[in-house]
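Treating backbone geometry as a discrete language has practical consequences that deserve illustration. No coordinates are needed to read the tokens, only the vocabulary itself. For completeness, the protein is quoted in full, as a sequence line and a line of structure tokens:
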Amino acid sequence: MTKVIKELHGFANNQIFLISENNKLLVRKIGDVSRNIERMIALNDYPLPKLYNHSEQQIDMEYIHGLDIKTYLTINTYESLLDFIKEILDRFKQDATPKDYTDSYISKLDQIAFDSDIIFTKEQLINKLPKVLPSSQYHGDLTLENILFSVDTKSFYLIDPITSEFDSYIFDIAKLRQDLHCGWFIRNDHAMIDVKIKHIQQELFCLYPESNNDYLLILMLLRVYRYSIPNSPERKFLTKGINSLWK
């Protein structure tokens, strides 16, 4: 017997439910999930929820009884989380090879309609972005919201990886900075964890200096901006962050 316990909310357009099925809890994601499935399979030896069943429009996966990172950092120090992120990134960067991402930048930015409040053009941003970066294993949407801490195993898990044209651990770090630098994941709740997340960012810059690039962060923010509603709080937050990073 299948029973919906509750709907889980995110910023994407997919529907996510906590399901009870045959006395077992699982998470069901419905919608455009093909890129999630592809990346979960590619990362099958990484700490991700178990993939139970999947089809073209649905994923059933393990439910992780745990804490989101905002809650985790409110009651814990940041060092264990930083160690986890470093371990994942070090694994990702193994066997990396140089790749020119110019065409990927052009293709992605062509899909984004800038409103009049953006203070630069697409062409100006492309000129500023680093063209050659190490192509590697990657998550594809590595935000703090896509990391969970299991209260059962006392360990961290990655969730919601996605296949992307930005196939580099450097883009994953840039995506993390969406939270670490801009505070996207605490935009509606001013949790007192700013010092902790700034320490994480500074450590990552020391270890991966090529990730210290605000134009890559602008690109990651624009990926979210694309799906935001004009004049919404999210659009205003993103526009302010994007413009403040432009030099």
Observations:
- The chain has two domains: 1-63, 65-245.
- The longest strand covers residues 2-8.
- The domain at 1-63 is CATH 3.30.200.20 (Phosphorylase Kinase; domain 1).
